[in-house]
Design brief:
Number of strands of chain A: 13
Order of helices and strands of chain A: HHHEEEHEEHHHEHEHEEHEHEEHEHH
Shape of chain A: elongated
Largest sheet of chain B: none
Structural class of chain A: alpha/beta
Number of helices of chain B: 13
Strand content of chain B: under 5%
Largest sheet of chain A: 6 strands, mixed
Strand order of the largest sheet of chain A: 5-6-7-3-8-9
Number of helices of chain A: 14
Number of strands of chain B: 0
Oligomer: heterodimer
Structural class of chain B: mainly alpha
Radius of gyration of chain A: 24 Å
Distance between the termini of chain B: 38 Å
Chain lengths: ~400, ~280
């Protein structure tokens, strides 16, 4: 490892084999030396310790890699999970593959630096049509910067990103190809909702009647003539979505779309995303809310400190990064615990006296109990959540930890 | 080793030159026109510009007419009833319409709506040019109306002292059209300053300094240089009776046009190369 830099200590992926070739992007566990020096990351012995205790952290990156070093695992739309063998399954074409050929977003070694700060760090990913792709990461991870680069608003320091196989600024009438909602509050308040959509329609030669159509889709028809400045946050979000849908685009991008929406609005937007994807469109959705993503996204791209940490189907992601557990209670609680431990399961005592078993599924536990003539009182499989997986992945990647001050004061 | 190779790649990768696909100009113009006409403040500003120009012009004319008896022969010889009746127009009308032009750019930057604009039209220079054209096209008729009404009201005041000129008099019509043209160019300068400075308050202040600053700064400059200041050129554009130290009206319009071109070119470069 010739590239280790002074002051960097051990490289975190030491010992992990990587495929050779330059076509490999930087991931959390594949930290490039060039980046390590500039992104403010400091190695601490505990980092290494933590990683050793959590082998699953590395799992995605030791597996065989495809383009850009990102494993492309996708999930069929019905939610059927490919077997545990780890074989890659390609997404079958959606019901309506794009009307205009390949409509996807492709980021290639995308990097954005602001002075010494690296906001987006050699990122590669592909957002495919026919599914909702979630772009998940803590605040400040680089989600918005990436989205601005996709739209040609920010110029990448290096690398490139293409929509429909072209850089954004080469698209003819871009609103007809890509609809984006970046910041719902970014409207001049004096205009009415309809007027705001009208200037957008005019700029891309979109018929004016489409304005009332999209206002109807988002449920703002009644306030079409009202000043945007008097809109609530939720109404602004709906207006932003209307603007994104104006050109009937094949690709839609939403940056934190559920911010400010009430539960009804959240449900509405979730269904909208899914229906857009089922029409064969490319749907790219950023959020820092893991629970929301678990319910909406078919595929996840997880970003932390500007680097792609994971790129996988939502269920694979959860399965790989969390260990499902089973809650079990028996009349002969102690005997059961011993029996399960002997069979290789990890058994912990829950707060209510039940046992929480990991490493064994409910059927195997039931079998073990009957073999030992133990009477079960409760046998509940506990699903693993995206939250757990997300925290595991991003705890080293979050810029601002709560309680950081308290931790650092101990060292003084 | 693999990582080292990829590092070198990342450093030496140069993005291809930015070739912005040109959007049909008419669409961008239409879009910018929709923006300006759908903002109620546009029309409020236009009404204010006309009424304040006329009102202030009338006050200045009354004061001038009252001083007529005490004026020297030399002062009376250079008295220009047309330019005098447009005094309010230049003090306030031009500044109001110029500030409106500033806001067509800065309002989008301050709210972040500029990102929607550039997402819809990635050709940023075209967006700025369209804003300049549309704003100037809006300012021209408003300014012409303000100038004509100010002139007529002013001449009514001067009629009491038999000092009035008629709109058909030699050079008067040209002066009124040049007045509107000059304000349109000030609006273009405003769009350019908005693109350069991006903040409403800063850019508006800069515009006021450009227009009024000439009068202050001019005191410290030789007359040969002073006549090329934007504020002085604006004043010169509407003179009917030529006075020393001022450019001919046609030349004054040309000078203002050059200022507008310089500011817009600078703003265009800045907007095209900075992240939005």
């Amino acid at each position: 490892m010739l590239f280790l830099q002074a002051g960097r200590g051990l490289n975190r992926q030491t010992g992990l084999a990587h495929p050779t070739g330059s076509d490999q992007c930087n991931q959390a566990a594949v930290e490039g030396p060039l980046l390590g020096a500039t992104n403010g990351y400091r190695y601490t012995p505990s980092d290494h310790l933590e990683l050793a205790e959590e082998p699953h952290f590395h799992t995605p990156t030791v597996r065989p890699m495809t383009r850009c070093g990102v494993i492309e695992l996708t999930r069929p739309p019905q939610g059927h999970v490919s077997g545990t063998s780890g074989t890659e399954r390609r997404l079958p074409p959606g019901p309506r593959t794009s009307r205009k050929g390949s409509t996807m977003i492709e980021a290639n070694h995308l990097t954005k630096r602001y002075g010494k700060t690296v906001a987006v760090n050699d990122v590669c990913f592909t957002v495919k049509p026919g599914q909702v792709t979630g772009f998940l990461g803590p605040n400040g991870a680089g989600k918005s910067t990436t989205m601005r680069m996709i739209l040609g608003l920010d110029t990448p320091t290096s690398g490139e990103v293409r929509v429909d196989g072209r850089p954004y600024h080469e698209l003819a009438d871009p609103l007809r190809s890509v609809g984006a909602l970046l910041d719902a509050g970014a409207v001049v308040g004096g205009r009415s909702a309809a007027s705001h959509l009208m200037w957008l329609a005019d700029s891309n030669g979109i018929a004016r009647r489409r304005v009332s159509e999209v206002l109807g889709i988002v449920g703002l028809s009644d306030v079409a003539g009202k000043r945007v400045g008097a809109f609530s946050l939720g109404m602004n979000q709906r207006l932003g979505i209307a603007a994104a849908l104006l050109g009937d685009p094949e690709t839609v991008m939403f940056d934190e779309p559920i911010n400010g929406l009430d539960p009804e609005g959240i449900l509405w937007i979730r269904n909208l995303m899914k229906s857009l994807a089922s029409e064969g469109r490319t749907v790219f959705l950023s959020s820092h809310l893991m629970s929301e993503m678990a319910q909406t996204a078919d595929h996840l791209i997880v970003i932390g400190r500007g680097r792609i940490i994971a790129d996988a189907g939502t269920e694979e992601f959860i399965n790989r990064h969390t260990a499902p557990s089973v809650r079990v209670r028996a009349v002969e609680q102690t005997d059961l615990g011993e029996a399960l431990t002997q069979r290789g399961a990890v058994v912990e005592c829950g707060s209510d006296g039940a046992l929480v078993v990991t490493g064994m599924d409910a059927a195997a536990i039931g079998g073990a109990a009957s073999a030992h003539d133990i009477t079960l009182v409760e046998l509940t499989p506990l699903g693993s959540t995206l939250e757990v997986a997300y925290f595991d992945l991003t705890k080293d990647e979050t810029d601002y930890h709560a309680g950081q001050l308290a931790d650092s004061s101990k060292g003084i | 080793m693999s990582t080292a190779t990829h590092t070198i790649d990342a450093i030496h990768f140069t993005p291809p030159a930015r070739q912005v696909r040109t959007a049909p100009t008419s669409r961008v113009l239409k879009s910018e026109w929709t923006k300006i006409r759908t903002l109620p403040s546009t029309w409020r500003t236009a009404v204010m510009a006309v009424t304040i120009s006329v009102g202030l012009g009338a006050v200045l004319c009354i004061s001038q007419a009252n001083q007529w008896a005490s004026m020297t022969v030399a002062q009376r010889a250079t008295f220009d009833p047309t330019a005098c009746s447009l005094g309010g127009f230049f003090l306030v009308g031009a500044v109001l319409l110029g500030a409106l032009a500033v806001r067509t750019v800065t309002a989008e930057y301050s709210t972040g709506m500029i990102r929607s604009t550039f997402t819809a039209t990635p050709a940023r220079r075209l967006v700025l040019a369209a804003k300049a054209v549309v704003t100037a096209a809006f300012a021209f008729p408003v300014a012409l109306l303000a100038a004509v009404v100010s002139f007529q009201v002013g001449q009514q005041v001067f009629a009491g002292k038999h000092l009035q000129v008629s709109i058909g008099s030699s050079g008067v019509l040209q002066a009124l059209v040049f007045a509107a043209l000059a304000v349109s160019l000030v609006a273009m300068i405003g769009v350019g300053l908005g693109g350069l400075i991006r903040h409403t308050a800063g850019a508006t202040t800069a515009l006021v300094l450009v227009i009024v600053g000439g009068a202050v700064l001019g005191q410290f400059l030789p007359a040969g240089l002073r006549q090329y200041l934007p504020g002085t050129a604006l004043e010169a554009a509407v003179t009917v009776n030529h006075s020393a130290g001022l450019l001919r009206p046609g030349a004054a319009i040309a000078v203002l046009g050059i200022y507008a071109a310089i500011v817009l070119a600078a703003a265009s470069m800045r907007m095209a190369h900075r992240d939005a």
